[in-house]
Amino acid sequence: MRTSGVLMPISSLPSPYGIGTMGKAAVKFVDFLEKAGQKYWQILPICPTSYGDSPYQSFSSFAGNPYFIDLEYLCKDKLLTKKECESFDWGGSVSYVDYGTMYVSRYALLKKAFARFMKNIPADYEKFCQDKKEWLDDYALFMALKDANDGNAWLEWDADLKARKESALAEAKKTYADSVEFYKMLQYFFFKQWGELKAYANSKNIEIIGDVPIYVALDSADVWANPSQFYLDEDLTPIDVAGCPPDAFSEDGQLWGNPLFRWDVMKKDQYSWWVKRISAMSELYDVIRIDHFRGFDSYYAIPGKDTTAKNGEWREGPGMDLFNCLEEKLGKLPIIAEDLGLLTPSVYKLLKDSGFPGMKVLQFAFGDKVQDSEYLPHNYPQNCVVYTGTHDNDTTMGWFKSASKGTVKFAKKYFCMTKEEGYNWGMMRGAWASAANMAIVPMQDLLGLGSAARMNTPSTLGDNWKWRATADQIDNKLAKKMREYMVMYSRLNQAPVVEEKEETEEAEKETAK
After folding, report:
1. What is the pLDDT of residue 291?
2. What is the residue-averaged pLDDT of the chain?
């Protein structure tokens, strides 16, 4: 089945309160996707962001981002008033998120909601806390302790709390009980609103593709609560950390700083932490895109005290042993493998053995010295997902301005592009026309936006994850144009034949009566 989708982070949706949420604009976006004949809505990770605002560096792999809780829905629940929402500063732009302002305003407002929440606790709240207890208790206490320690990383906390001594944890739960409950409430509303949004999307025959970063942040409830699963020394400091080696783009390589997994320990307990993580993500999303797939074959380990990635070494990952275990425990899961970067024969073998579709990015296909790139559409297998670009790439229109003349000339000739059509539409047309079973295009490309709308520039801080669409940009005219291409390239999303048959049978029964 040939399908298509749009990459659009929750944060990038229109909203009067500084950042996209799971409210009316999200519902309208689902309606837009349905009108446009799309099957998938791909989002970035929706976990709570830490310093730097990257969704790939989160305080928890299991929790949801409180920024995405819709304030208008809380007003309907009489936990806030519209006047209160409008009284806070949400930044001066409708096109970009101001995370500094967001941090101050959003939490202050949500604490107002918490005071009212505690006076009339919903009947299903206790069940929610019990259902999510395995990760929620640690996460809520972790966040409460961060607040109590002026936001400092857990490695800087009191020694007993850092080492999770039972007596210290018990005392902290009593001392910070209100704060713990506040963070539990935030998760209650996040999952309530997310569940309703996902159910609505699914009712329109649209599925959600969600990202799962391979690594977790050092300053996270994941590492604090499960130190034995990570490569830490006796003082709980990372021995080696994750990153990428030096290459033509970076003389020092990329020093990500994430703690590495103790794959030997994980293997002994049948990868229980990964089973819990993927199980939770499979409930959150319909399709899981696993970031940095090559790291499961071999991963780059950098000495924890180094300031560059120059002195790292490659080590063997868990390979198919992990994925066989996940399938044994959870069944066959719809997974997309982010297999970009420097790939070795063993990575190609892992991808083939797993059966997961890999990724093809059109911006990687056209270079001055490229003879027959695997990213050129005529080389695609059907079992792959094609993107014009990802969240880490420039927008298509930005790419056309920054790429070399030879690269641009090749791309224009390959797709028979014209300026009148729009180079962004020529590139998207190339993706939709390809043999790939699934084609995903970023919302910025559909809108023909330049580099100012780029989502992320890797290895940089301070100006990423900010772009937002405005309400007038996502309209029926655009949906109609997309739908015409979906029909042309046999990617139109239609209701499953089985459901149509069932409806016909029901209608025949009614007629017979």
Report:
1. 94
2. 94
Helix (H) or strand (E) holding 386: strand 384-387
pLDDT digit string, tens, across residues 213-231: 999 999 999 999 999 999 9
The residue assigned the tokens 């009339």 is 120
Cα 189 from Cα 66, distance rounded (Å): 8
d(CA 356, CA 336): 6
The set of catalytic residues is: 291, 338, 392
Structural element, H or E, at residue 99: helix 99-117
Longest CA–CA span in the chain (Å) reads 78
Q: Is 439 helix (H, G, I), strand (E, B) or coil?
A: strand
- Note the pLDDT of residue 104: 94
Per the document, the length of the chain is: 513
List of domains in the chain: 3-512 (3.20.20.80)
Q: What is the pTM of this model?
A: 0.94
Structure tokens at 273: 């932490």
Q: Per mean pLDDT, which range of 371-385, 428-442, 477-491 is the poorest?
A: 371-385
Q: CB 177: neighbour CB atoms within 10 A?
A: 12
Using an 8 Å Cβ cutoff, are 442 and 8 in contact?
Answer: yes
Closest CA to 312 of 349, 263, 260: 260
Environment class of 148 (CB within 10 Å of its CB; exposed 0-12, middle 13-18, buried 19+): middle
